[in-house]
Specification:
heterotrimer, A alpha/beta, B alpha/beta, C mainly alpha, A: alpha/beta, Rossmann fold, 2 domains, eight-stranded mixed β-sheet, four-stranded antiparallel β-sheet, about 20% strand, globular, C: mainly alpha, about 75% helix
Chain lengths: ~350, ~280, ~290
């Protein structure tokens, strides 16, 4: 557990071995004016030093799930369940504890770096602001740490004096990563951090995140819509659909032996350079709207294995036989057993 | 799993788009540097590159939104280079009949105050003033998979995929020979993207229209194009049939792009090194 | 969206009610008041108890009574009737100012924002010249040349307000011009003029009109001010601003009612226009988000 020091050191004190960086249990989130909860019972853990990917499309609830770790929720939202970051439940914190959490324990990297930084202030101001205001660090200490962080992400100290407009997208996203590391967090949340970047820059940024996770001992929750990217960089993957976890397990198990029809369909409909030219096996229809009530499995209307039980009863998350860490919420998860997807 | 289509036989091989020697600079930066390519009827050509490669500027020059400094754009044999084209209504309409465009952002490329039906009606009234439009509007909507409920809706009531279908219908309403798709599926979810790519393949088969597909996504380019050119810093570094280029890339930059596509067992670190080496 | 809405501070705080945005009591009150004023103006000949110009010197400066519910002014004219009849010129004048400045301002702003280049420079520099003149002084100048009457001050103020509208319009057009749908229409083959009038203008109109509603209030104050200075409507016209001017002697005699009541009417009407206009502007801004 982090005690509020003025300037955190590089030693990963926060990675107390057995306390998971993030532990979400039974999270329900309801917004006013909707027929069903936006998040309906989400369970998710990120251990220290682990990279976990959260995959889903628009409306799946993946962004809200990651934001709940910082309690960055819409004003009128009502929540149930627990979201524990480094052992402390975020949902029941008072404003002071919340502020300490956001300064020291958890940090977020957003999708568009240009939208997340004030274009009128220098990069150095941006990096040191939080420590100077919230942790009472002196300008010199904060600047020294900022310089170290910039070097860790591969930028020179000269960047401190530059304005965001003078940096490219990739460099700016590195600045955001450095900013996230300033408080020596136990948990880093990355919400589609590479979607706005070129593919080659994406590779660099992703590699960097991985290195830093190792070096600083933080847990990383990587939110993305790209299942291929998720499988390539993470240890474990969660796939979300309509506010629920559809499937979760080790990355290669999910990618090579998916058991949920949605995961399989998502993999099939992703175009890949090594596949032959031709039509994709697209999923028909659209995800259920937030105004629709759901009784059974939310994917049933679009699923080719759907039967009556699928529209009546919500499937529970059950482990796949012989793979205890691979959980799937489907009445017919055995239908996909034995089938291999083109990698 | 995945259906493969045999390569469609090129219909008469007529060249509908020919671009030669395009150059465009913004200040000291050469955004487009001596770019040439051609597109035959019913074929699909992809332009692949990252930001700053000049692919978007090239597309905009081809469509007439930008002016090239030098070079020539021939659409169906007619010189449509912005510098040479005449002014006036007849030229404007003739150019629009040759080549149309679908933009990246489905929401911003539609007027927020115009319903779907009004959008199509406007276009039809501009280019085919004498005809009766109601039937044609229904036909176009059916072709892109939309119905009367969407026809009466404003853009903000539609999903991203539906909006992009409207944009495609609007472009098809003009009956162009070439359709330029500028990152047309980049802003869509994966499952919606697959639906739109299939739709585009269907339309090409039905109407024999030619595609110029601008994208940064190699998977998309593989799926939907016959030939591809790879651009970097304004120049064409490699060109040829898509299948061949992606299977056996000759240029190191193309190889770098292919390596950057994430897949299991992928090591992002040596991509950074390779990028610096270039 | 970057728009310049000139707001007077303070009122906004009262306006934010705790209930849903549709139910602000202040807004409804002001809207009702404006409707009342407009009705008074339209039905003035039938509503006013006496002839507003009937002089009765024997009764000068009398207080409220059964016959004259709001008293009389220095010449014995019934205040209530003058207030009701005065609503006509007091509303007509600002209406003229707002109509003129909006139509001319939008035209100038559209031309400058859409075409850009030398036309933009020319129009922008010209409107900036007008900015440099305080509106009231410009009005006084023109009135002193053209003499009394409602037309001269209305035109003068219309010209003085034009730059505000044109500057707002221009910045809105500049922003709208960058939106992809404008390019999409160009690729479709529409001419620039068609796109500007049929698509850009309807999209920016709500913001401009909301601002114009607020300008109504300012125009009312400026016109009343001109009348108060004696430059504006002719001497005997029942006009609220003129009534304040005419009431100078009444104030000096210690019977200020005939001068204070028109002031109160002016203030209430301007406040009402501001509240309604700001509310409309907020709704427009919220809708576009």
């Amino acid at each position: 557990m982090n005690t509020p020091t003025t300037v955190p050191t590089n030693v990963p004190t926060s990675a107390a071995a057995n306390v998971p960086a993030l532990d979400i249990q039974g999270l329900h989130l309801r917004l006013p004016g909707t027929a069903r909860p936006v998040l309906a019972g989400v369970d998710l853990t990120v251990a220290a030093r682990e990279t976990v990917a959260l995959v889903g499309e628009s409306g799946s609830g993946k962004t809200l799930t990651s934001r709940s770790a910082l309690r960055l929720l819409p004003l009128k939202a009502t929540t149930q369940g627990a979201v524990r970051v480094a052992g402390e439940d975020v949902l029941t914190m008072n404003p002071d504890q919340l502020r300490r959490l956001r300064t020291h324990t958890a940090a977020m990297i957003f999708q568009d770096p240009r939208a997340a930084i004030n274009p009128l202030r220098r990069v150095g101001d941006f990096l040191t602001e939080s420590l100077r205001l919230n942790a009472g660090a002196s300008a010199a200490e904060a600047t020294a740490r900022a310089t170290r962080m910039l070097e860790a992400v591969g930028l020179s100290a000269g960047a401190l004096r530059q304005y965001p407009g003078q940096l490219s997208g990739g460099m700016l996203q590195r600045v955001m990563i450095a900013a996230a590391l300033m408080g020596d967090p136990a948990l880093i949340l990355a919400d589609e951090p590479t979607t706005a970047l070129d593919v080659t820059t994406q590779a660099e940024v992703v590699g960097l995140l991985d290195d830093l996770r190792e070096q600083f001992g933080t847990g990383l929750l990587f939110v993305t819509h790209d299942l291929g990217l998720a499988a390539a960089i993470s240890d474990r993957v969660y796939v979300m659909y309509a506010g629920r976890i559809a499937e979760t397990g080790p990355a290669d198990a999910l990618f090579n032996r998916p058991r949920h029809p949605y995961t399989a369909a998502l993999l099939n409909s992703t175009p890949r350079p090594e596949a032959p030219q031709g039509r994709l096996a697209a999923i028909e229809g659209q995800p259920p709207s937030i105004q629709e009530e759901l009784t059974g499995c939310p994917f049933a209307p679009r699923c080719r294995f759907a039967t009556e039980i699928c529209t009546e009863r919500m499937p529970e998350q059950l482990p796949v036989p012989d793979e205890p860490s691979h959980l799937v919420a489907c009445h017919h998860s055995d239908q996909l057993a034995g089938s291999l997807i083109d990698a | 799993m995945r259906e493969t289509n045999p390569q469609p036989a090129p219909t008469a091989g007529a060249t509908i788009l020919e671009v030669s020697g395009l150059c465009r600079s913004f200040g000291s930066v050469k955004a487009v540097d001596d770019v040439s390519f051609s597109l035959s009827a019913g074929m699909s050509l992809g332009i692949v590159g990252e930001s700053g490669s000049g692919k978007t500027t090239t597309a905009r020059i081809v469509v007439g939104l930008e002016r090239a400094d030098t070079g020539q754009v021939l659409v169906q044999g007619q010189d449509r280079t912005a510098r040479h084209a005449g002014r006036g209504r007849a030229h404007r309409l003739a150019r629009a009949r040759g080549i149309q465009m679908v933009f990246q952002d489905p929401y911003l490329s539609l007027d927020p105050r115009t319903t779907v039906e009004a959008v199509l009606r406007e276009t039809l009234r501009l280019h085919f003033p004498k005809a009766d439009h109601t039937g044609r509007i229904a036909e176009l909507l059916g072709q892109v998979g939309l119905g009367p409920r969407e026809a009466a809706a404003l853009p903000r009531r539609l999903s991203g995929g539906q909006r992009q279908r409207v944009a495609i219908a609007r472009a098809l309403a003009v009956e162009p020979a070439v359709l330029v798709l500028d990152e047309a599926v980049a802003a869509l979810d994966v499952s919606v993207q697959a639906q739109i790519l299939n739709l585009l393949a269907d339309i090409r088969e039905q109407t024999g229209i030619g595609y110029l597909f601008i994208t940064h996504d190699l998977g998309v380019v593989r799926c939907v194009t016959d030939d591809v050119i790879v651009m970097r810093n304004g120049r064409v570094v490699e060109s040829g049939p898509t299948a061949q280029i992606l299977a056996e890339p000759q240029h190191p930059y193309t190889r770098l792009l292919l390596d950057s596509v994430p897949r299991p067992g992928w090591d992002p670190r040596h991509i950074a090194a390779a990028r610096r080496a270039l | 969206m970057t728009t310049e809405l000139v707001r007077r501070p303070g009122l906004a705080r009262i306006r934010l009610s705790r209930t849903k945005p549709g139910r602000s009591w202040l807004y409804l009150l002001c809207l009702g008041f404006l409707v009342l004023i407009v009705l008074l103006a339209l039905l003035a000949p039938w509503l006013s108890p006496h002839d507003s110009n009937a002089v009765d010197l024997g009764n000068a400066l009398a207080g409220p009574s059964g016959v004259h519910p709001l008293g009389v002014d220095g010449s014995g004219r019934d205040t209530a009737s003058r207030l009701i009849t005065g609503a006509r010129t007091s509303l007509l004048g600002p209406l003229g100012v707002v109509l003129f400045s909006t139509v001319a301002g939008v035209a100038v702003g559209l031309a400058a924002g859409w075409r850009g280049g030398w036309l933009d420079s020319l129009l922008s520099r010209s409107t900036e010249l007008i900015f440099a003149f305080p509106g009231l002084l410009l009005a006084i100048l023109i009135v002193s040349i053209y003499g009394e009457g409602l037309t001269a001050p209305v035109v003068a103020l219309g010209v003085a307000y034009l730059p505000y509208v044109s500057r707002l319009t221009r910045s809105l057009v500049l922003a709208e011009r960058e939106r992809p749908y404008v390019e999409a229409y160009r690729v479709q083959g529409h001419s620039g003029l068609q796109i500007c009038l049929r698509h850009v203008l309807p999209n920016i109109a709500p913001v401009v009109l909301a601002q114009s509603t607020i300008n109504f209030g300012y125009a009312l104050i400026d016109l009343a001010g001109l009348s108060f200075l004696g430059l504006g409507v002719p001497a005997l016209t029942p006009d609220w601003g003129r009534m304040v001017f005419d009431g100078e002697t009444a104030i000096q005699s210690g019977y200020p009612l005939s001068a204070i009541l028109p002031c109160v009417m002016i203030v209430l009407t301007v406040v009402a226009f501001n509240v309604v206009g700001e509310r409309w502007a907020d709704q427009v801004a919220r809708r576009d988000r």
